[in-house]
Write a structure and sequence with these properties.
Blueprint (H helix, E strand, L loop, with lengths): L4 H11 L12 H13 L12 H12 L3 E3 L1 H6 L10 E4 L5 H17 L2 E5 L9 E2 L4 E2 L3 H16 L8 E6 L5 H6 L10 E7 L1 H9 L2 E6 L4 E7 H15 L3 E4 H6 L11 E2 L6 E2 L4 E2 L1 E5 L4 E4 L2 E4 L1 H21 L5 H10 L3 E5 L1 H8 L6 H29 L28 H7 L12 E5 L5 E5 L1 H9 L5 H10 L10 H6 L8 H12 L9 E4 L5 H13 L4 E6 L36 E9 L2 E10 L2 E9 L6 H16 L4 H8 L5 H4 L9 H29 L31 E4 L2 E4 L9
Parallel strand pairs: 2-3, 3-6, 6-7, 7-10, 14-17, 20-21
Antiparallel strand pairs: 1-14, 2-13, 4-5, 8-9, 10-21, 11-12, 15-16, 18-19, 22-23, 23-24, 25-26
Helix pairs in contact: 1-15, 1-24, 2-3, 5-6, 8-9, 9-20, 11-14, 14-19, 19-20, 22-24
Length: 754
């Protein structure tokens, strides 16, 4: 297998089996063999006398060749005791206290198993409504969303994936204005992505400036009217402010509801791409499009025969997942098998375009998107029909919109999902998103820098004789190639990053894939920080006009102000017993460490950071002859030492000290720190990264049998404005990417949603 160092890191952290002490029990090859064997064995239920060895080998080969990967729970759990293989579920929330808390319990069981959940809160009566059984008043959907949020927070602490939720409220619910604003504070309802469920009638009313009715879900009677254009403006304003809520077009979800006899589709999974009926689950996988580009005498071409073969095996694989899956609730298993929905998608789209020499923001790319996805969906349906001849159609086929046609094994075939960690494993761009950044700079322990460059860009620059470390640093600093005048125009036009692409082309690309996708398309329209509310409004209108099923936007830096909440006193905590006293562990007899000289405004500060086998345990400082603030630095070092030996994480300490500014330091050019505390934080960061790299190197040796050339430490957030830290991964410090309503790190695999 040709896995990158980042892929090996993600596998070690999130996928490979470990014992209770955290020791790895399998290699990447073992993982893929475990998954292939488990999924192929499902064939025995249909052909008991047929061997599965050949099918297992095909499944194993397409995963180890990084041509196809299933969703994360399948990789994590196939062949293991938990056995829960689905990514996401939709649960109903009915308007009784018993049903609400039954949904809370069911969601907790799903999160414990590694899945995410989607809910529509539209059936709940609005806040202030009378409750006849108690004589009281209803607290409304938003208050119950907070209950779900708190339950998720409690459960996610012990899981392998973080619990993620989608919360949806219909545009005609009387509490819709409160819903739009309920995440105005970024610290609120943090385990939910939110979307407003809009109707075609609402969008028509908004376009004409007309009022529309708010309907009490309990009585189904209109109770008030709002100006549709003003409400859409509030949604736009909130999304511009911090990216939420998104919108989904409910009528379009139900237009493509394959079994309308089973009720309406009211919700989707947490990333917005899989509309589901209550108690359905989604079983997803993605084809790596970079693996179907072949070299010919005329240049790179798409190998459609290989793509067809991959689609056939992938559909077979995903249909088998439904059979071997150990569902967290019996009812989910039953409902899922009634329709047998699968969601085959793609990743590496942006990289494939680069390999073909096609700019992402071009009509040619949009046309190719339709061609590729149309081919995948048709080939997938053909394979589903073949399986139906052997295994039978999905049980509700005769009640479906396909009744009377050639039987299908699966009610839906295709979905475009975000592929955050999967695309790291595959070494390609995520889903159908453009490349976020082409060059990253990583710091290594000896103060040198390691440059990571998109391989397609690197090959193109080397072929032109233009590649240099200095140029790569310039691109990394600029964030894209667009304004690097030293580069030829054709390269700048081809290698466009996410923020170089107009919002209109983001939506056109999403719409092109949607036209040939059974379910929905996960795609984030990334705006620059200076984008206006009018820009966001135009995207919403265009998404509606072009036939998208939903839209998610993110304006760069729009959530950074949440750092201002750090350190605020939290009031209203329940009174109770005093917390147990924290006692620092004793200083160890023997430590290792480094001492680094840091220039500060008053001279030199010498920072010593020591560690033992349990981690960093103490910090010392001393100042040079020029003076400085020795007492303040010593006090900081002593408090840091006590905190470290009391169990406070080094990352938390670094976050508190990093970026503190001293006038005597910041006035002088060429400084590597902004104050004495910032200098201490930087040296702690170095040692922490060194320890992490050392641990990871040991694991990589175990996985690969050979040592990497240079263990790279995690990239640190740039010095300067501490608000900028919010753009960076909380686990490793790399730049975060926003996709499909989630936040993902392509360096370590961290995601808000898994």
């Amino acid at each position: 297998m040709n896995l990158s160092p980042n892929a090996l890191t993600v596998l070690r952290r999130r996928y490979l089996q470990k014992d209770e002490a955290g020791v790895l029990l399998e290699t990447p090859e073992d993982l893929f063999r475990r998954v292939a064997h488990t999924i192929a064995a499902a064939d025995l239920a249909y052909s008991p006398d047929a061997g599965c060895a050949a099918l297992e080998e095909r499944f194993y080969q397409m995963m180890t060749d990084l041509e196809f990967l299933p969703n994360s729970p399948t990789l994590m759990n196939a062949g293991r005791p938990l056995g829960q293989l689905s990514a996401c579920f939709v649960l109903p929330v009915e308007d009784t206290m018993e049903d609400i808390f039954e949904a809370v319990k069911q969601a907790a069981l799903i999160h414990k198993s590694g899945g995410g959940t989607g809910f529509s809160f539209s059936r709940l009566r609005p806040a202030g409504s009378s409750v006849h059984s108690t004589g009281g008043v209803a607290s409304g959907p938003i208050s119950f969303m907070r209950v779900f949020n708190m339950a998720t927070e409690a459960v996610k602490q012990g899981g392998t994936r973080r619990g993620a939720n989608m919360g949806i409220l219909r545009i005609d619910h009387p509490d819709i204005l409160q819903f739009i604003d309920c995440k105005k504070d970024n610290a609120e309802i943090t385990n939910f992505n939110l979307s407003v469920g809009v109707t075609e009638a609402f969008m028509e009313a908004a376009s004409q400036g007309l009022p529309y009715d708010l309907v009490d879900p309990h009585t189904q009677q209109p109770v008030a009217q709002l100006d549709a254009r003003e409400v859409l403006g509030k949604i736009v304003d909130s999304a511009w402010r911090n990216g939420e809520p998104g919108i989904i077009f409910l009528d379009r979800l139900n237009r493509d509801n394959v079994v309308p006899s089973q009720g309406e589709i009211e919700s989707t999974n947490p990333c917005g791409e899989q509309p589901l009926l209550p108690y359905e689950s989604c079983n997803l996988g993605s084809i790596n499009l970079t693996r179907i580009v072949e070299t010919s005498a005329a240049g790179p071409v798409i190998d459609y025969e290989k793509l067809t073969a991959l689609v056939q095996d992938a559909v077979h694989f995903l249909d088998n997942v439904i059979d071997v899956n150990q569902y967290p609730l019996e009812r989910i298993g039953f409902v899922t098998r009634q329709t047998r929905k699968i969601g085959l998608g793609v990743m590496g789209w942006a990289d494939m375009l680069l390999m073909l020499g096609i700019p992402y923001n071009s009509d040619r790319a949009v046309e190719l998107a339709e061609q590729i996805m149309g081919h995948i969906t048709e080939a997938g349906r053909a394979e589903s029909r073949r399986l139906a001849k052997i295994r039978g159609a999905f049980p509700l086929f005769d009640e479906s919109v396909y009744a009377g046609q050639e039987p299908l094994r699966n009610a839906t075939i295709t979905t475009i999902a975000p592929t955050g960690t999967l695309s790291i494993l595959a070494g390609c761009s995520s889903g159908v998103e453009p490349v976020f950044a082409y060059v990253f700079i990583r710091n290594i322990m000896d103060n040198t820098e390691m440059i990571e460059v998109n391989p397609v860009l690197k090959a193109a620059l080397e072929s032109c004789g233009l590649y240099s470390d200095e140029l790569m640093k310039q691109i990394a600093a600029a964030g894209s190639l667009a304004h690097i005048d030293a580069l030829p125009r054709e390269l700048r036009e081809l290698f466009v990053a996410s923020h170089d692409i107009s919002p209109e082309y983001h939506i056109r690309m999403q719409a092109a894939f949607q036209r040939h996708t059974d379910n929905a398309v996960s795609k984030t329209v990334n705006f620059t920080h200076d984008a206006t509310r009018e820009d966001v409004a135009r995207v919403y209108q265009l998404a509606w006009q072009l036939g998208c099923k939903g839209v998610t936007i993110y304006r760069d830096g729009s959530r950074d102000n949440q750092v201002l909440n750090i350190g605020e006193v939290k009031t209203g905590e329940a009174a109770g017993a005093a917390p147990a006293a924290i006692t620092p562990r004793p200083r160890p007899e023997v430590t290792s460490g480094i001492t680094e000289r840091m220039r500060i405004g008053c001279g030199n500060l010498y920072v010593t950071v020591n560690y033992d086998d349990r981690g960093i345990c103490e910090v010392f400082t001393s100042t040079g002859k020029a003076g400085g603030c020795p007492s303040q630095s010593e006090a900081t070092a002593r408090l840091v030492s006590i905190a470290l030996r009391s169990g406070v994480s080094a990352d938390e300490i670094i976050a508190q000290l990093r970026g503190i500014r001293c006038p005597s330091t910041i006035r002088q050019p060429g400084m590597k720190c902004t104050s004495c505390p910032d200098a201490i934080a930087r040296v702690i960061r170095k040692v922490a990264d060194f320890q992490k790299a050392h641990r990871e190197m040991n694991d990589l040796v175990m996985l690969t049998g050979q040592e990497p050339a240079a263990p790279a430490a995690s990239p640190a957030a740039p010095a300067g404005d501490p608000l900028d830290a919010m753009r960076h991964c909380p686990e490793c410090g790399a730049l975060l990417e926003h996709e499909g309503g989630c936040v993902a790190c392509r360096s370590c695999g961290y995601s808000k949603c898994n």
